[in-house]
Structure formats: C-alpha cells, structure tokens
Amino acid sequence: QVQLVESGGGLVQPGGSLRLSCEVSGIEFSSSKTMRWYRQAPGKERELVAATTTSGSFIYTDYVDSVKGRFTSSLDNTKSTQYLQMNSLKPEDTAVYYCFLVHLGSEYWGTGTQVTVSS
C-alpha cells in the first residue's frame, strides 16, 4: 500500500522559512516517478507549486513563477522523502500543502499540511 505523509507545516512570520517533508512508503523510492507539491488556499483552487520528474540519474524540477527563487524541492532516496524548502515566505503562501506521486501509472495524494504566514 502506497502512503504519503507530509509534515513540517506551521505558523511563520513573513520573511521566514519552513521545510516540508513528504515521506513515501510502499514503492521503491529510487525508481522512476513524478512527484509534485500542490497547495490550496481557502476559497481557491488547488495550485501546482513544484514538479519533479526522475528517471535513473535524470532529475528535473520546475516551479510555478510565484515561488521561483524562494522554494526548492529535493529528494532523499535514503529516506524515501521529498522536501520543499520554503524561504522568504509571504502571506499569500498561506495554504494547505499536498504531496503528490505518480508511479507506474497510478496517482497518490498525501493528506496535507497547513502553512500559515502571518505576523
């Protein structure tokens, strides 16, 4: 059974940083896959934040324009975990952040972690 568990959300002041984690179980994490971070703010549609595609030694990540230069997604195969390092946070980054996985044609979602940016 494939499971994605996010952690690391919380309350932070504008300009601060948080690191989200998404631990994946039930697959060989080093295998080819696509992993994404989405977010959903109250009253808004779910938005793609970052997308990482891996195939062998090839890794490519793209970001939505609003987070480029501030957010960095990374993978740790030894811990079967995807991270989202978020710096220079703004109030408009407030949302529930979700981890998403595509593996062997199947899609999986995490349960989400709340990020609130407020003074």
Question: What topology does this entry show?
Answer:
Layout: E1 3-7, E2 10-12, E3 18-25, E4 33-40, E5 47-55, E6 58-63, E7 71-76, E8 81-86, E9 95-103, E10 106-109, E11 113-117
Parallel strand pairs: 2-11
Antiparallel strand pairs: 1-3, 3-8, 4-5, 4-9, 5-6, 7-8, 9-10, 9-11
Describe the structure.
It is a single chain. The mean pLDDT is 93. With 119 residues, this protein is an all-beta fold. Strand 7 (71-76) and strand 8 (81-86) form a beta hairpin. Strands 2, 4, 5, 6, 9, 10 and 11 form a seven-stranded mixed sheet that branches. It is built from no helices and eleven strands.
Write a compact overview of the structure shown:
By secondary structure, this protein is an all-beta fold. It is 0% helix and 58% strand.
List keywords for this structure.
single chain; about 120 residues; mainly beta; 7-stranded mixed sheet; 4-stranded antiparallel sheet
User: Main β-sheet, in a few words?
Assistant: 7 strands, mixed
What is the element string, with H for helices and E for strands? Answer: EEEEEEEEEEE
Structural class, by secondary structure, is mainly beta
Give the low-pLDDT segments.
Answer: none
